[in-house]
C-alpha cells in the first residue's frame, strides 16, 4: 500500500480543499460573533472547536470545484450548511438530553438548555443571512427546503421512535430528513452555484442523499457495536433513549411473542431494567440484524457511487467515490 | 362617544384588512401542514388557534396597503412574520419553563420540550421558505437580519437577566432584539414590497421599532400590576423567574444597601422566600418605578406616532396612530 492510498479519503479531500476551508473557517468565526451576547460565540466555539469532520461544508466545496466553479460564493454556502448542522446539533442535544458530543460534554450540560436552544436559533438565523448572499433564488429554495425537511424529520422521529409500528419505510423517511437532507442540499447547491446542468445537479443530489443515508445507518449501527472512544457516544444510548433504529426495527419484525413483549416493555413503555441492554443485544445477534443493517449501509454507499458514474473524471470525483467507501468502512 | 371611536383600533384595522388576513390565515394553515409529521400542525394549531392578536402580520399588511401595494406578496410576508413569532413563542416557553400562554397551557406542558423545540425549528424553516417567495433580496435581508437580532436579544436576556449590573441601556438592547426587531421588520418589509422611497421605509421602521419597545415595556409593567385573566400570565412571573425588567432595574438604581441585598438574594442568587414578591412590590412602590416605567412606555408610543408624521394622510395611517395609543392604553 503506498502512502497516497493509506491516507483517509476524507483527509485527502480536506488537503485538496485546504484554501477554501480556511476561508470557510474564517467566515464561520466572523459570523458566529455577536457584539452584544458573548455567550453566543462561546457556545458555538465549544462545538465548532471540538473538531467535527466538517464533511458537509466540504461536500459543497467539492461539488462546486469539481464543476469548475471559481468562487467566491461556495464558501458562503459551505458556512451556511455548517451553521445549519451546528444549530441542529445544539437542539438535538437538548431534545435527547445528551451529555456527550464529539467526546466532550455537551453545551446543554456545560451551560444550560436555554443557551443551546437560543444559540441554535441564532445560528439558524445566521445561516439564512448567509444563504441569501449569493443572490440565487434556486440556492435559497434548496437550502430553506432542506432546513424544513430536517426539522420535519426530527419531529417524525420524536413520534415514531417509541412506536413499534415504525417500519423500515418510516425509518428511511426520518433518516432522509434528519441527516440526508443536508448532505444532498450540500452537494446540490455546490452544483447549482457552479452552473451545472440539470442532470449533473440531480446526480449530485442523489450522491448526497445516498451518502447521508449510509452515514446515518452506520451511526445507528455503531450505537450497538461501537466503542465510546470511537464515536464519542456510549454503546446502547439509542436503546436507553428508546429510539427505534434500524437494527431494532429489523429485530421487531422477526420477534416472537415473548421477544415482542420485551420490546414493548423496554422501548414503547420505557420500563428498562438491569441487563435489558444485554438481552437486546442478544436478540439483535439472534436475528442477525446488525449484519443485515450493515448490508443496507453498504448498499446505500454503492448507490452513492453509482450516482456519480455519469460525471466526467476529475480528481475530486475520485475522492467523493472514496468517501462513500470510507463512510461505511467503520463497520466493514 | 360614537360607535366608530369605541371600537378598539386594533379591531378596526383587523376589519379593514379582513380580506388580506383571511389569505394570511389560509397560507399559514397550508404551510404549517406536514405530510409526515402530524405532531407539527397539532402543536402549531394549539398556539395559533389560541387567538393571539396577530398584530405583527397586520403591521405588514397595513404598511403595504397604506402605500398602495396591490399584492399578492404582502400576504407571504405577513405569514413569514407570524411564523417567526410563533417559533419564538414555542422556544421562549421552553427557555422560561412557562406553563401558561394566551390563557392556555403551553405546548411544552401539553406535549413536551422536545416537540416545542423541533416544531419551532420547523416554523423557522417554513418562514425562510416563505420569505424567499417574493424574490426580493432586500426583503430577505431585512427578515433574516431580524431573525438573527431576535435570537441575539434572547441570548443577551439570558445572560443579563440575573445580573444586577444590567442597566436601562442593556434592557433596551434586549427589548429591541426580542420584541421590536420583528415589529420594525414587519412595517419595513411592508413598505419595501410596496416600493416606497427610502424616507418612507425609514419612517415605517422607526414606527415599528418604537411601537415594539412600547409594547414590551407595557408587557413587563403588567407583569407587576396586571391580572392573570388579562395577560394570561401570573403577576410576579418575571420576579419568580429572576428576570430583571425595567421596573426592577429602576428600583435597583435607587436601592439603599439593605434593598440592594434583597435584590442580590432574590434575583442574582435566586434564593426566594415566602413574602418576597410582596416585598419587591413594596420597593417598586416606594421608588415609584411602576409610574416611571409607565412614562417610558408612553414616551415610546409618542415616538411611534411622531415617526409616521411625514407620511401622507391615509385611513390606515390613522389606525396605526391609534394602535400606538392602544398598546399603552392597558397601563394608562
TrEMBL record, chains A, B:
A Pfam family it matches: polyprenyl_synt
UniProt xrefs under InterPro entries: Isoprenoid_synthase_dom_sf (IPR008949), Polyprenyl_synt (IPR000092), Polyprenyl_synt_CS (IPR033749)
EC assignment: 2.5.1.-
Alphabetically ordered keywords of this record: Magnesium, Metal-binding, Transferase
Protein name: Polyprenyl synthetase family protein
MF annotations from Gene Ontology: transferase activity
Protein family according to the UniProt entry: Belongs to the FPP/GGPP synthase family.
Cofactor: Mg(2+)
Source organism: Sulfitobacter sediminis
Keyword Transferase found: yes
Signal peptide: none
Source superkingdom: Bacteria
Coiled coil: none
Amino acid at each position: 500500500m503506498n502512502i497516497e492510498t493509506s491516507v483517509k479519503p476524507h483527509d485527502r479531500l480536506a488537503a485538496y480543499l485546504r484554501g477554501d476551508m480556511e476561508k470557510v473557517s474564517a467566515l464561520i468565526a466572523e459570523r458566529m460573533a455577536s457584539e452584544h451576547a458573548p455567550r453566543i460565540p462561546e457556545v458555538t466555539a465549544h462545538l465548532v472547536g471540538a473538531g467535527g469532520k466538517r464533511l458537509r461544508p466540504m461536500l459543497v466545496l467539492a461539488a462546486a470545484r469539481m464543476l469548475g466553479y471559481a468562487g467566491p460564493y461556495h464558501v458562503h454556502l459551505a458556512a451556511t450548511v455548517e451553521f445549519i448542522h451546528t444549530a441542529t446539533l445544539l437542539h438535538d442535544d437538548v431534545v435527547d438530553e445528551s451529555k456527550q458530543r464529539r467526546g466532550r460534554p455537551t453545551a446543554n450540560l456545560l451551560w444550560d438548555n436555554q443557551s443551546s436552544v437560543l444559540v441554535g436559533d441564532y445560528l439558524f438565523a445566521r445561516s439564512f443571512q448567509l444563504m441569501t448572499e449569493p443572490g440565487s433564488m434556486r440556492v435559497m429554495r434548496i437550502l430553506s427546503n432542506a432546513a424544513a425537511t430536517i426539522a420535519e424529520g426530527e419531529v417524525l422521529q420524536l413520534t415514531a421512535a417509541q412506536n413499534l409500528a415504525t417500519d423500515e419505510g418510516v425509518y428511511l423517511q426520518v433518516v432522509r430528513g434528519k441527516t440526508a437532507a443536508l448532505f444532498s442540499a450540500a452537494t446540490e447547491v455546490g452544483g447549482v452555484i457552479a452552473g451545472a446542468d440539470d442532470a449533473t445537479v440531480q446526480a449530485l443530489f442523489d450522491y448526497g442523499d445516498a451518502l447521508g443515508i449510509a452515514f446515518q445507518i452506520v451511526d445507528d449501527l455503531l450505537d450497538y457495536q461501537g466503542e465510546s472512544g470511537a464515536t464519542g457516544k456510549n454503546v446502547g444510548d439509542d436503546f436507553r433513549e428508546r429510539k427505534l433504529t434500524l437494527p431494532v426495527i429489523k429485530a421487531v419484525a422477526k420477534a416472537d411473542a415473548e421477544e415482542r413483549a420485551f420490546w414493548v416493555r423496554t422501548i414503547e413503555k420505557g420500563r428498562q431494567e438491569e441487563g435489558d441492554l444485554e438481552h437486546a443485544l442478544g436478540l439483535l445477534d439472534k436475528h442477525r440484524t446488525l449484519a443485515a443493517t450493515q448490508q443496507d449501509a453498504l448498499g446505500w454507499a454503492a448507490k452513492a457511487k453509482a450516482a456519480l458514474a455519469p460525471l466526467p473524471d476529475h480528481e475530486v470525483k475520485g475522492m467523493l467515490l472514496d468517501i462513500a467507501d470510507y463512510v461505511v468502512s467503520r463497520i466493514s
